[in-house]
Amino acid sequence: xxxxxxxxxxxxxxxxxxxxxxxxxxxxxxxxxxxxxxxxxxxxxxxxxxxxxxxxxxxxxxxxxxxxxxxxxxxxxxxxxxxxxxxxxxxxxxxxxxxxxxxxxxxxxxxxxxxxxxxxxxxxxxxx
Length: 128
Hints:
Residues 1-126 form the DOG1 domain. By secondary structure, the protein is mostly helical.
């Protein structure tokens, strides 16, 4: 790689690190939301209602569904943020490299993905 490419890759690395930290902070925020006192109390209420066969079970169940949908929406946001960071990383690297370097880079990524998949399949067979 040329000196200019090295500088661009280093700048990309710094930017991506900052973006990853944003994703991590948002993920932590979502995790705290899942353990929020209101959610825990709502789940405990649902258990009591279901155990006692209370007529309010439907209403409590609906409240739980609404709370879960909000949590899932937050987690979806985190996943999309992470996908954007991965895409920016790939685009930044490809934009910096020459066409031949891109081919080598993408081929190496493909080999790693294949090896990880093979390892995963082998690991899954051991667990069965």
